[in-house]
Amino acid sequence: MHIEHRQMSREEHLQIINDFGMQLLYKTTINEIVWLIAKSVIAQMGFVDCVVYLIDESGQHLIQKAAHGFKNPVDETILNPICIEVGKGIVGTVAKTGIPELIHDTSKDDRYIVDDSQRLSEIAVPIIYENEVIGVIDCEHPEANAFNSADITTLSTIASMSSIKIIHAKTLVDLQNHKANLEKQIEIRTKELTSTITSLEKSNQDLESFAYAASHDMQEPLRTVVSYLQLLEHNEKSLSESSKEFLGYAVDGSKRMKNLLDGLLEYSRVKSSSAAFKLINLDDLMILVKADLQVSIRENDTIFKYENLPTVFGNKTQIQQLFQNLISNAIKFQKPDQQAIIEITVEEKDAFLEIRIKDNGLGIAAHFHDKIFGLFKRLNANRDYKGSGIGLSLCKRIVEYHNGKISVESEVGEGTTFIFTLPKGEEV
Ligand SMILES: Nc1ncnc2c1ncn2[C@@H]1O[C@H](COP(=O)(O)OP(=O)(O)OP(=O)(O)O)[C@@H](O)[C@H]1O
Ligand SMILES: [Mg+2]
């Protein structure tokens, strides 16, 4: 076996490093880099064989990534990569210490591990990145004293040039994996969301058509019940005292039933209203609301505090229902014998107006704040405070139909503020 590389001049060494550097510029994957080391450089240096190892994820093993010479496999594929434990043998020692090894006669070194046949010279240099060994370049030669310190220097230079490239390539792969992973997750999430939205829309539609059908279709039988009850009332004289009392309850019940059905029907109609949106001055609207609620306002002697209310853009009937329910609640859910003070304030929020209706009434405990906007949710006994529990769900639906939001701030005994947004009038 010839060992002419030993006669290589300093210029030849520099030439090899230079050629390697030029080729390395165009390599982007780890595979390309390790094969460049194994093949071209080692061929140029006239070494007999060379293996490039990289340390695996665990940091415990060196895995063969490329090889040239006796161990050269076909087509840049390694069928059974050699695996060496860090710390074992000469290569393992270099991985552990980070110090190159130059062995002139392996038969005298008991760390030497024979694989296919004993080769007397060995040179192993670490590939180091930021003080950490990431791999080892290992070359062997059948004859003793085949390598010298110039070989170590050249190989170490090649190792350090490669290390940065290997880390860059690895980072790129990690980034690509991360990106692919993120994209996959986004895709899964989007699918989940889409299907949730679809099923929500479906159940909303079901609920709406149910509410409409129930409230609409039940009006007729209820009317029949009411008219027969009225007939009975007209013939009161023929009734016993207890029958009269029962009749009173039945009339009461059917009135409540009628209110519920009316409310439900209104609720289910919010989104199907064909009335065009228009400018609504809230000062004017409040005059109508107060006229409708005049009986309870007078009974309670309610005080209103607001001035120069602005104009909103919306469906007039619905906005009136919204204010009417919030103000009737403010009067109704009042401490016994207390005069209600209702304050209305408005603040501009981009294309919307944020309206606050504040009262000095009973207040609502925090854990009910979300619940009160649900259909039929009531916190007080019907005998004390009449109502069907539809008002606030109707308010929420009306506000949302106008692309706004509604919420409540309240503390028991401290009064309640309803806050909602509606489209500004003058934007249109
Ligand atoms: N301003 C308020 N102060 C204290 N509690 C309130 C106030 N507004 C609403 N609530 C509570 O929230 C519940 C739901 O209100 P909502 O307007 O939906 O129903 P209601 O007034 O009882 O019935 P309806 O409005 O359908 O006639 C009320 O029963 C009451 O317990
Ligand atoms: Mg109400």
How does the SSE layout of this entry go?
Layout: H1 10-24, H2 30-45, E1 49-55, E2 61-68, E3 83-85, H3 89-97, E4 101-103, E5 121-129, E6 132-141, H4 149-234, H5 241-269, E7 278-281, H6 282-292, H7 294-300, E8 303-305, E9 311-314, H8 316-332, E10 341-349, E11 352-358, H9 391-401, E12 406-411, E13 415-423
Parallel strand pairs: 8-10
Antiparallel strand pairs: 1-2, 1-6, 2-3, 4-5, 5-6, 7-9, 10-11, 11-13, 12-13
What does this structure look like?
The chain has 428 residues and is an alpha+beta fold. The chain folds into two domains: 4-178, Beta-Lactamase (2-Layer Sandwich); 275-423, Heat Shock Protein 90 (2-Layer Sandwich), CATH 3.30.565.10. It is built from nine helices and 13 strands. The chain has helices at residues 10-24, 30-45, 89-97, 149-234, 241-269, 282-292, 294-300, 316-332, 391-401; strands at residues 49-55, 61-68, 83-85, 101-103, 121-129, 132-141, 278-281, 303-305, 311-314, 341-349, 352-358, 406-411, 415-423. The strands form three sheets. It has a six-stranded antiparallel beta sheet with strand order 3-2-1-6-5-4, sandwiched between helices. Strand 5 and strand 6 form a beta hairpin. Helix 6 crosses helix 8 (316-332). Adenosine-5'-triphosphate is lined by residues 263, 325, 329-330, 333, 359, 361-362, 364, 372, 377-380, 387-392, 416.
